[in-house]
Design goal:
heterotrimer, A alpha/beta (506), B alpha/beta (426), C alpha+beta (151), A: 506 residues, Alpha-Beta Plaits, TIM Barrel, 2 domains, 8-stranded parallel beta sheet, 15 helices, 23 strands, B: 426 residues, alpha/beta, FAD/NAD(P)-binding domain, Enolase-like, domain 1, 5-stranded parallel beta sheet, 9 helices, 28 strands, globular, binds flavin-adenine dinucleotide, binds iron/sulfur cluster
Chain lengths: 506, 426, 151
């Protein structure tokens, strides 16, 4: 019997003494894993249905539930890992591409954790952010090389015309997640959170739901290969426009929202008929060169009367530096680079786990390239893909970024437990779903409060670290690779990152 | 300003509270012919049955009137109202002047002409003193068996109390069934069975024609010829508005005192509310005299506000009642007995559990509801009846076991939840 | 007078019914979820009711109405408004179980008590707690405590 059933990924253990048969877990599991046996008067779980979202564990009022990992209990094998074997079993059964969601979960791509930061001791004083001003406000957009001033009556005025800028009170924004891939309540949470914290959220490629219009001042609208919902009103609805070429979780791959998910409201925002598949082609069919991209950038600038910054988002791939240089030369006001750990609502597992490069290397080489070419001031750099704590933000900025985008981190703040089943559309936490019953589980008032809290906390930590290094403005951190040291990195990696190994002085 | 209220029932008390809400200072006098003020009339059957003691009989304790600066005159029967001189006159001859007068005298029991009805052991049952008298009569005369004439609510509540005391009871009802005015046939039938199962005899299409015995009752003779041995006969065949003393006052009286939506009578500064009042609905021109506690209370409140100068309007009410008899809870609201063409009936009956629900619909609106056995959430239906909500869109859900607010139209529910439905209009 | 009021946010109720469970527990002898389930069921019942139909769920408890029909209809005075808190309470000593209040409450939130005492039972806004149990434990803030009226 070669046929095998892949083992349940999780087992749900229920302490029968503590179970009060309130059935909250039965009622709320969207995967239908929990059930009640009236005759036995007991609650059970079909473990195979459990995706490990931990909703039942969270809702159970008596803490009777424990969701446990259930790795394949075969002989330990560092090469033939439980994951590898289970994947083979699944594919032998289905003969199809393995789908997954969220970002790359493999351990070997995290350079942030192999870099350490500096602090002041004796020779330069550190700063206490509680007592002294600390500036972390950031402007994104094209900067002039020099400022020209002119004399006017009664004083002097700025003569140089400054290109449109985005003003960020914290150097962290919420990355593009379309309404469709996440729920409206999730979008609302991010929108309101961005508004509360003076930063931006991004509509993603799904168009603009009418309920989000009021957040225009804190919104970046995206224009992707499917061009869903894109018209002149849409382009002007936000504070900036972002052209999406690629995404870290699936470089080189388009998107596909199956027709059955294109419900009335989705069809309205995407501007396509109800029930039709929403296909985002792998490339933009009108962009095959930097020159083509320049045309689109300027078309959008025309459409927005040069009042809004226009950015371009790409996945971090091998050629990221020259591509970024081309993008800046094509007229982009900011470049977004999404690394290999970038998240998504649905992607082939093989792509997610193997295509692209880590964001730390990407930002370092892009920043260096633009500096070398003398065009760094022409565009801001925003990095994305697996930013998970404030120190990552500090390190990314030290490597050359102006600001970061967070996606997964924000979703985790909203309740996401990284079960990686977004593509099933049954998210128990009301995030990656369109099922009204599940969507309402995410109260945007709570959501906004939580994502705003997250940014508030990170901002405090960033100031703490800056102060420790004797820096009182985030400006002085940008591209300041001297504050970084590598631990356990190869010489060439250190070279690419532009940092010294730990232990080496200035 | 001097307010005078005749009658200390729910209508009078609610009016006094409403007046005091607006006007804390002016003189306020409340008058009752009874010796006690502030007790709750519907509790007299519970008192008889021993479920409620002396203390719990009080809806308002005497000191509550003092606290609100209200002077109370007990044992004072008013025999004349003189609107010209703005005063009322008591039987003892006291003249009590008023600036605003409320007539809230309730009703008194109707006693049909029966041979020998004056004998000892025959009682009506509408006042606390009746309850006390019956209680001591039972003890003093070792009464083990009683006859209750009248199978209406008061009769049956009294029956319930007598059964509680361990007496055997026979109920005699002139109509073809008990509770004929408030409940439908099926409900009557269920209640009859329930009473019978507790050893109570029920005789319908019958009445008492003669009370036998020397000085005291020993037997009653029914129209059907049946004779029942009993030492106690309770007469509970109906209540009439207490309006006799208004004769010659110029105040318009039909069955009760005619009032408009502000509880004003035809005579200036004279208001009426409660069982003694007959509300003439200005929109339909029809007038109703609904003798129940909630209506008396609501009318009293509206009267009080208007007397104190706050113009609120009464929205009208429907008859309704709730009783638990022989362990069966029952509620009836609105018109439950209509069976003409334009009416649609929805109902279900679960025999094993004695659960019966019936709804009466007319022109897409709910006009009546009967609940026996299971009365949970009955008020939602009452709300629909009173607010005249169009129920046609969710008609089929009305009898669901899990029927609740979630089945109501969204706008109505929203209004409800936000507390926007008004009990009366300003 | 400032009056506490529970707002029901229908759009965020997830139908978990935890409010009912915490309501029961708050009004139980032991105040312990597990002990209530094991030893005290049948003695207490929730006074918050969760309703559910297709995609709509919400919890509803006594609204402590401005003009309360139940207070008007109560024949004993058991159902009353507390002048301090502005909330409506039932004095279970006075109540005789005539169910006039059940007959008139348009929300259907007054229940026949489940314990031996045959008296009306309804939301008391958790008088002895800072925050009503249902509000405090609603995982999605579908129940929110507000204060209305001037102080
Ligand atoms: C036994 C019984 C049970 C009942 N049960 C229910 C029930 O379960 N539910 C329900 O809704 N209703 C019930 N009712 C009816 C309810 O009691 C009345 O509808 C309600 O009391 C009417 O209130 P009221 O203020 O209009 O008059 P009443 O309560 O009758 O008060 C009238 C007052 O006026 C006084 N009075 C009368 N004439 C004069 C006068 N000339 N001078 C001075 N004072 C005078 C009387 O002594 C009395 O104090 C019951 C009634 C009885 C008798
Ligand atoms: S606890 Fe909150 S979310 Fe759960 S049923 Fe009650 S009101 Fe709804
Ligand atoms: S059941 Fe109790 S609280 Fe309700 S009306 Fe009757 S006496 Fe008042």
């Amino acid at each position: 019997m070669a046929k095998r059933r892949p083992p349940a990924d999780f087992v749900v253990e229920r302490d029968d003494y503590k179970c009060i048969r309130c059935l909250a877990c039965v009622r709320t599991c969207s995967y239908g894993a929990n059930f009640y046996d009236e005759r036995a008067n007991r609650v059970f779980t079909e473990n195979l249905k459990c995706v490990g979202c931990h909703f039942c564990e969270a809702i159970c009022p008596t803490e009777a539930i424990l969701v446990r990992h259930n790795p394949l209990a075969t002989r330990e094998n560092a090469h033939w890992t439980s994951e590898a074997v289970t994947d083979i079993m699944k594919q032998a059964e289905t003969g199809g591409v393995l789908l997954t969601s969220m970002g790359n979960d493999k351990p070997h791509f995290t350079y942030f954790d192999r870099m350490v930061l500096n602090a002041s001791q004796v020779t330069n004083p550190s700063i206490d952010p509680l007592r002294e001003p600390m500036e972390i406000r950031t402007y994104l957009g094209r900067k002039p090389l020099a400022l020209e001033l002119e004399n006017i009556e009664g004083g002097i005025a700025l003569k140089t015309r400054i290109a449109p800028q985005l003003k960020l009170e914290v150097p962290i924004m919420f990355s593009a997640m379309s309404y469709g891939s996440i729920s409206l309540n999730a979008s609302k949470s991010l929108a309101r959170g961005a508004q509360m914290m003076g930063t931006y959220f991004n509509t993603g490629e799904g168009g603009l739901h009418k309920d989000l219009k009021e957040f225009g001042e804190n919104m970046i609208v995206q224009c992707a290969s499917g061009r869903f919902g894109v018209n002149v009103d849409y382009l002007n609805a936000g504070a900036a426009v972002e052209i999406k070429i690629g995404q870290g979780a699936k470089p080189g791959i388009g998107g596909h929202l199956p027709g059955e998910k294109v419900t009335e409201p989705i069809s309205e925002t995407r501007m396509i008929p109800v029930g039709t598949d929403a296909i985002s082609p792998a490339p933009h069919h009108d962009i095959y060169s930097i020159e083509d991209l320049r045309q689109l950038i300027y078309a959008i600038k025309e459409a927005t009367r040069y009042e809004k910054p226009v950015g371009v988002k790409i996945a971090a791939v091998h050629n990221v530096a020259p591509i970024a240089s081309g993008i800046v030369r094509a007229g982009a006001d900011f470049v977004v680079i999404d690394g290999i750990r970038g998240g998504t609502g649905a992607t082939p597992k093989v792509t997610r786990d193997n295509v692209g490069i880590p964001i730390e290397l990407a930002v370092a080489v892009v920043d260096q390239r633009l500096r070398d070419e003398g065009i760094r001031h022409l565009a801001s750099i925003v990095v994305a893909g697996g930013i998970k704590r404030s120190s990552d933000v500090v390190k990314a900025i030290a490597l050359g970024a102006d600001a970061v985008y967070i996606g997964t981190a924000a979703l985790v703040a909203l309740g996401c437990h990284l079960c990686q089943k977004c593509y099933m559309g049954k998210c128990n936490w009301g995030i990656a779903t369109q099922d009204p019953k599940l969507v309402r589980r995410l109260n945007p008032e709570i959501g906004a409060r939580r994502v705003a809290n997250l940014l508030r906390a990170w901002a405090l930590e960033i100031k703490e670290i800056l102060g420790g290094m004797g820096i009182n403005a985030i400006e002085s951190l940008r591209g300041n690779r001297d504050v970084l040291r590598g631990v356990g990195l190869h010489e060439h990696e250190l070279e690419l990152l532009g940092i010294k190994p730990a232990g080496e002085a200035w | 300003m001097r307010y005078v209220i005749i009658g200390i029932g729910p209508a009078g008390m609610a009016a006094a509270d409403a007046i005091r809400e607006i006007d804390e200072k002016s003189e306020l006098v409340m008058i009752t012919s009874e010796e006690v003020a502030g007790y709750s009339k519907p509790l007299i059957t519970y008192f008889l049955g021993g479920k409620v003691d002396e203390k719990r009989m009080f809806y308002r304790f005497p000191w509550c009137f003092e606290e609100k600066n209200i002077s109370v005159m007990t044992g004072t029967e008013i025999v004349q109202v003189d609107p010209n001189e703005k005063r009322v006159i008591s039987k003892r001859g006291e003249e009590i002047p008023y600036d605003k007068l409320l007539i809230a005298t309730g009703g008194s029991p109707f006693v049909p002409k029966i041979e020998g009805v004056e004998k000892e052991g025959v009682f009506t049952f509408t006042q606390w003193k009746d309850s006390k008298m019956v209680a001591s009569y039972i003890v003093e005369n070792n009464v083990a068996k009683a006859v209750v004439l009248g199978g209406g609510l008061i009769g049956l509540k009294t029956t319930e109390a007598l059964l509680e005391l361990g007496l055997k009871v026979s109920v005699v009802e002139l109509a073809d069934r008990i509770l004929a005015t408030t409940f439908d046939k099926k409900a009557s039938q269920i209640m009859t069975r329930a009473l019978q199962s507790r050893g109570c005899e029920v005789y319908t299409d019958d009445t008492v024609v003669q009370v036998k015995g020397k000085r005291k009752v020993s037997k009653v003779l029914l129209k059907s010829g049946r004779e029942i041995k009993t030492k106690l006969l309770i007469i509970a065949v109906g209540v009439r508005p207490n309006v006799g003393f208004l004769e010659g006052s110029g105040i318009e009286v039909n069955r009760g005192v005619i009032v408009n939506e502000r509880m004003e009578t035809n005579v200036e500064n004279v208001f009426a509310a409660g069982d003694c009042a007959e509300f003439r609905d200005p929109s339909t021109g029809e007038s109703t005299n609904i003798a129940i506690w909630p209506v008396a209370f609501a009318e009293g409140e509206v009267a009080g506000y208007n007397m104190a100068g706050r113009p609120v309007k009464y929205q009208g009410g429907v008859p309704m009642n709730s009783v638990e008899l022989a362990g069966l809870a029952t509620i009836s609201v609105g018109f439950t007995n209509v069976e003409d063409n334009g009416v649609e009936i929805l109902k279900y009956f679960k025999e094993e559990e004695n659960v019966y629900r019936k709804l009466v619909l007319k022109d897409g609106r709910l006009i009546g509801a009967v609940f026996v056995g299971d009365i949970d959430r009955a008020g939602i239906y009452t709300g629909l009846i009173l607010q005249k909500v169009d129920v046609s869109s969710f008609k089929n859900d009305l009898l669901r076991e899990d029927f609740g607010l979630v089945y109501l139209p969204k706008e109505y529910r929203k209004k409800l939840m936000e507390g926007e439905l008004k009990v009366w209009l300003e | 007078m400032k009056k506490k009021k529970i707002l029901v946010k229908e759009e965020y109720c997830i139908g978990c019914r935890l409010c009912e469970i915490y309501c029961v527990t708050a009004h139980s002898e032991s105040k312990n979820l597990i002990k209530v389930f094991r030893y005290e069921l049948g003695e207490v019942a929730p006074t918050v009711i969760v309703e559910e139909k297709e995609y709509t769920t919400f919890a509803v408890q006594c609204r402590h109405c401005e003009k309360a029909s139940c207070v008007q209809a109560c024949i004993t005075g058991a159902m009353h408004r507390d002048n301090g808190t502005g909330a409506i309470y039932v004095d279970q000593e006075k109540c005789v179980g005539c169910w006039m209040c059940i007959m008139v409450c348009p929300y259907g939130v007054i229940k026949r008590g489940v314990n031996k005492k045959k008296v009306a039972s309804k939301c008391d806004l958790c008088v002895d707690r800072e925050m009503p149990a249902c509000v405090e434990n609603c995982p999605n803030e579908a129940l929110v405590l507000t204060e209305v009226g001037e102080s």
